[in-house]
Structure formats: structure tokens, C-alpha cells
Amino acid sequence: MKIPGLAIAAGGVGLAAWLVRAGRPVPEAMGGRATGTRAARMAESPEWSNGKFHNQQLRFEPSSRSLAGSVRELVAGRQERHPVGDVPLVREPLDARPEGTHVTWLGHSTVLVQIDGAVVLLDPVWSDRCSPSQQVGPKRLHPVPVELRDLPPVDAVVISHDHYDHLDMGSVKELARLRPETRFVVPLGIGAHLEKWGVPADRIDELDWHEETKVAGVRLVATPAQHFSGRGLSRDGTLWASWVLEGSIGKVFYSGDTGYFVGFAQIGEQYGPFDLALVQVGAYDDGWPTIHMTPEHGVEAALDVGAPVMVPVHWATFNLAFHPWAEPIERVLVEAERRGIGVSVPRPGERIDVASLPAEPGFWWRSVT
Prior knowledge:
Layout: H1 4-23, H2 26-29, H3 36-43, E1 48-49, E2 52-53, H4 67-76, E3 101-107, E4 110-115, E5 118-122, E6 156-158, H5 169-178, E7 183-187, H6 191-196, E8 204-207, E9 212-215, E10 218-223, E11 242-246, E12 251-254, H7 263-271, E13 276-280, H8 295-305, E14 309-313, H9 327-339, E15 342-343, E16 351-353
Parallel strand pairs: 5-6, 6-7, 7-8, 12-13, 13-14, 14-15
Antiparallel strand pairs: 1-2, 3-4, 3-16, 4-5, 9-10, 10-11, 11-12
């Protein structure tokens, strides 16, 4: 015989246990807070005022979307925002030091860039969810095509900003453990997160915009972006950035997360041209033009920095916006053809040689759309 009160109590105990389990890693995942000399250096940045970082060239464009409309779209568009089949992955071993410049998109904004003999890993996220807890939050739409332990030796990990879909505690801790020679190159303030997670201070380079460091012969320059930061309720306590990766021969630009702004043209003038641009094209919305580019703006950004070809990133892996799953790439191709720029769309895990790019994007996503 079932006693309703006991059943409810048992369910309550189960829920409480789940909540405790889900919440246990959250305080650590939120990272550290800058103090001392780190905080003093942040306060000296031209991008810092009134206790936080700011977009100095911010252009506000109000949203036309109502709350009711957002709820309707969230419900009605649910299936469109997921692939209908398994995303095709490439699971081939990656050579450690190929000649020239090679790019391997591993999903979302995680990219392995092999440039002039150096290996640079951008925004590594290997966790199943981009969240402070692996019990809740946006879940992967496809597996990571290569395990962290199977990567070639990584000279530098470069982080664009501290949101959970770009700065993943589990991946950072594992990389720091597996690769004691790896350096972490990050915007101002993010070193506090890394140190809390066990990365030694002498392996961290924290940069303001237009500051640079050199790792394994590759020049890494933090360049402007128009975004925001934060891993909890407070925002903008760490800086966000786009990045220039420049070897003796190859040169790659990575946009990070950003709205479209005049800074791209300025980056092109100061640091361009580039062989290839890795550009954020997904997770856009009418209400977010200042923080995430539309596909059309992504194409324009690649042209602004002086790249003849772009690889779209920040799409296909996590459901972070209202638009259909494959809409970003289809819009990119239309705009790129109109504007006369090349587009390469590798499958997750597929390495491309920047000197010998395929003539067609392959259209692999259409088989699962």
C-alpha cells in the first residue's frame, strides 16, 4: 500500500539530493575574483571605469521582440533548433606539427590552430553542458570529435572571455594537468579564475586590448570586441577580446563573441590582412545586436579585417538562441557569395589546410537538418 504523504516526502528527498548534487560544483565553477596587483592593473585599463569593463564604442539597437513573442518562439521553434540526426564528425588523429597553417574546428568556438609549427587552442570546451553545473544548462548537440588527451601538445590556450561556453572549468583543469608546458593567454581578470582552478600564475599571460605576448614563435595579440563578461550575477568584471594569431608566415584572426562594430575595420588596418578569419555567426537575436553578430555581420567583419576566407564558428554545438539550428550557415553562404568572400565549413574534427581549402563547403549539415 502506497502512502501519499510518504511518497511526496520521498520525492522531496530525491529532489533535494539532486539539487545538492547539481549545485555542489557551482561556487568553484564561478571562478575567482581579481585582487591586489591584478585588480590594480585592471583598473588602469582604458576599458575600465566605475568598477567594471565597458564597450567604449557601444551602439544600442533596441529589440522589437516582445516577451510573449520570445516565449512563443522558444516553444514553437524547439525542434528546428536541433539537428534531426547525428552530426557527422571526423575522428582522425591530428599531426603534431604540420607545415603551414591548419585549422581544426572542434565544435562551437573551440578551434585548434596549428600555425608555423605552434599549436594554439581557442576557447576549449569539452564538458557536456556549458554551465556551472553539469546537471543543468545547454547540452551538447554532438560529441566532441577528439578527446583532450588525444590532442597534439598544445603550446598556448587562448580564451576570448569568461562565459561558460568559452571558459570551461573542467577543460582548463584537465589541460593544465595533462599539459604542464601549456601557457594560458587570456584577457585581463581571467587569470583569477584560472588560478582558483589550479593553474600556476607563471603559466598565465593576462592582456589588455592591443597588448601581446609570444608563445612558441607565434605572436598573440588581444584585440577589441564588443561583448560582456560574467559567470555569476555580477557582470563585466573581466575583459573580453578578439585575437590575432601571427606566425612568421601564417596569420589568423579570431573574433570571439561580439556585436558588429567599427573596431573590425580598425583591427584590419592595424593588424591585417589575414589568411583566414574564425568568426562568430550563431546565437544571434534581434534583441542582442550589440553582443552577438548576425551571419551577415560576421561576413562583414571578416571582410573588414582583411581575410579572403572565413570559417564560421559559434554555431551547431549548443542551442543558445531562438533561430533554427542550421540557419546561421545558410545565411553566411548567401551573404558570402554576394560579398565575394570564401567560406570553409569543416565538419567537427575535420582539419583544413589554409593553403589548400576545398572549393565547396560540403553542405554536410543539410543531411541532419
